[in-house]
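ASSEMBLY PREDICTION REQUEST
Request ID: AP-0331
Submitted by: J.K., bench scientist
Number of chains: two
Total residues: 600
Priority: normal
Notes: Please return the full assembly, not individual chains.
Input sequences:
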Amino acid sequence: MSSPIFEVDNLRAHYLTRFGQKIQAVDGVSFSLKAGEILGIAGESGCGKTTLVSACMGLYIPPLHLSSGDVRIEGKSIIGMNVEQNRRDILGRKISMIPQGALNSLNPTRKVKDLATDMILSHDETADKRQVHARLRERFRKLGMPADDVLNSYPVQLPAGMKQRVVIGISTLLDPRVVIADEPTSALDVSTQKAVIRLLFELMDQGIIGSMLFITHELPLLRHVSNNIAVMYAGEIVEMGTIEQVIFDPRMPYTQALMGSMLSADSGHRDQKPVSIEGAPPNLAHPIQGCRFAERCPVARPDCKENQQVIRIVKDRQVRCQYAE
Amino acid sequence: MPSEPSPLADQPLKFEAKNLSRSFGHGKKLVEAVKNVSFGIASRDIISIVGQSGCGKTVLAKMLLRLETPSSGTLSFNGKPIGNERDAREHWRSVQAVFQDPFSAFNQFFTIRSQLKSSFKLFKRKPEEEEMEARVDAALMAVNIKPKEVEGKYPFELSGGQMQRMLLARIFILRPQVLIADEPTSMVDACSRANILDYLMKLKQELDMTIVFVTHDIGLACYISDSIFIMHEGEIVEQGPPAQVTGSPSSAVTRQLLDDIPDVHRPWIKRGALD
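STATUS: Completed
Returned structure:
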């Protein structure tokens, strides 16, 4: 078995507000990724998914602060360096992200090729511009995009799906080992979404990127994209296992509720009525005793709110629930 | 709960679009966003307009609202044509809309409650102060939000899902005859999506509202609508009840749309095939 290329070890990160409030947005998250593996992270809005992205990249810009824990890429820790050094040596080269609002992350006043060239030059000041352009063309062609057309366009001239693919192309130019995709398809229609996912698979299959963390609230999408799934709730991972385990046989009540809120277009399952999860996730500004999901849990027992929940192994997967079986 | 029927509620609804077209630009750059679309909408129906991005579904929805002027074709509501701006103003008493981004629909500088209350300005006769308060409370309860939760709150203090429900609360106050919902669930996460759809069905069942639901997800359309219109490149390529459209689709576009939805119960994508 190969050793993991991306390890996150008991990572905790918090926001410090202007009023001195501490919000523990990521609390004790651990996982590891092997080469060629895609880990999906699922959870509703506000569960800490996007904070986890910044925390995993070692990008701690106030108000976000590291509380404790470690992030290692190919065995080397990326925690503890300053933002400038992190931007130059780690981001883009070792770890890269595909942002949520990718459609708005391209500067509208510059051509795609200039944006991409900037990205390479900021990491390697000695690079020759013409060589860079040739490299860009080759890479975009390899990824099945009409390279010359796309590179010479302004972002506004491209349709949404192509813009997203350009963003993916640019963020993987330096062959990062790990890519974090944060809701890369939430603004796209279903057909474009499929094309974007194909592109991500292609990047993996060609060995351009090593492994991927795929973040979304769409469970059906995760089922087809990832190998393993981690379900997040209120800053913690509450269940982690393979697709078969988490999607088809969830053990944590929260995962079960998430599955219940899913809508199926498949003819055999169309009559199942989706059920929303009532209520809202807890406020993380105050320390929470006991299970964080207890307030909304349909099968909560009296002591759930008192006992600190720890990760247990239930049927070969990790579950943060004392009564799951 | 005091109720005032919608201004035209006792008449059966007759909302008709005839040969609606809308194009942008001219000469070589002419884009025909909507081409010759005709249909009629009956009372108490939820109809869905489904298509990929750029197929013209939003332009069509805006034309139904008369926010976009058709290049050609006519729109009539209960027999009255909607031509100039004065007609449009009258039209908005009976037809209202919910859009994708709830935050852009509310003013960030006023409390949510005061903005909900200002919806009464659209009424021909404004109710008494007390009654307005009571109706705002009732509307909030209808979307399962305790009035206390949003007391004194501004839009940025609520989550996207909650704000989307505020938009629907506004609809519960206004009680239009027709609601045009353009991708109301696309900014909401999967867990509250079912919720929003349920409120739309509640509007239909309890207030006899007719709903035009615009989406790119044929799965959602299937779940809530009585009939589905599939749009492609500005034209309606297929229409019918959900069972027929999804069960035996006659158009390749529909088959593609059904195929592209990721579903846990069937295969979706093959690795190593970039086309």
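REVIEWER COMMENTS: Residues 230-325 of chain A form one domain.
SIGN-OFF: pending second reviewer
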